[in-house]
Amino acid sequence: MIDFGIEFGQEISVHRQTVEAKEAITVEDFALGTLLSTASIANMVSEISVELLDKDLPEEYFTVGNKFSVIHIAPVITGSSVTLNAKVVEVDGNIIRLVFVGHDDKGTFCEGTHERIVIARNKLFDIAYDRAE
After folding, report:
1. What is the DSSP string of 23-80?
2. How many CB atoms lie within 10 A of CB 78?
3. Comparing C-alpha atoms, which of 9, 13, 1 is closest to residue 96?
4. What is the distance between the alpha carbons of residues 7 and 91, in angstroms, rounded to a whole number?
5. What residues are paired with 65 via a beta bridge?
6. Which phi and psi (to 5°) does residue 123 adopt?
7. CB under 8 Å to 114, separation ≥6 — which residues?
8. Strands 95-104 and 107-120, how do they pair?
9. Distance between alpha carbon 86 and the CA centroid of its chain, in Å?
10. CA separation for the pair 68, 110 (Å, rounded)
11. Is 130 exposed, middle or buried (0-12, 13-18, 19+ CB in 10 A)?
12. What integer pLDDT is reported at residue 34 of this predicted model?
């Protein structure tokens, strides 16, 4: 087994100056269109997890998301500043489990868990191409 260099307790805190309109809930009702969507939270958590983890991997490896669970506690208006924190809570072979929490100036707006798998780039694509045949 390769030592990936990812360890329990590694963490990241990322502050985003603004939440862009493209991250809003996409529905016809304009009022909802001004709120941060749960899907966008998932995307932001994935992005910061890659930033935290992938830098410690050999060049031929990267992480891919496997599981995501979020509690969307409070709405966030687009244009708000948010901070997301993620922390590695378990390393089990090539499976990395993280917890995360999101804050804005009013407090916590989300929390949850995220699981990523360390995999060789070529292996991931071999699996995908085999499934496509």
Report:
1. GB--SS-TTGGGBB-HHHHHHHHHHHHHHHHGGGS-TTEEEEEEEEEEEE-S--BTT-
2. 18
3. 9
4. 7
5. 116
6. -65, -40
7. 45, 46, 49, 65, 67, 68, 69, 86, 97, 98, 99, 100
8. antiparallel
9. 8
10. 13
11. exposed
12. 76
- Report domain extents, the chain: 11-132
CA dist., res. 131 & res. 127, Å (int): 6
Element (H, E) at 60: none
Nearest to 46 by CA among 62, 22, 57, 26: 62
In this structure, CATH architecture of domain 11-132 = Roll (3.10)
> The tokens of 25 are what?
């809930």
d(CA 50, CA 52): 5
Phi, psi of 39, rounded to the nearest 5 degrees: -60, -35
Whether 116 contacts 94, CB under 8 Å: no
Residues of the chain with pLDDT under 50: none
Burial class (CB in 10 A: 0-12, 13-18, 19+), 106: exposed
pTM: 0.86
Q: Counting Cβ atoms within 10 Å, is residue 70 exposed (0-12), middle (13-18) or buried (19+)? A: middle
Dist. CA 39–CA 26, nearest whole Å: 10
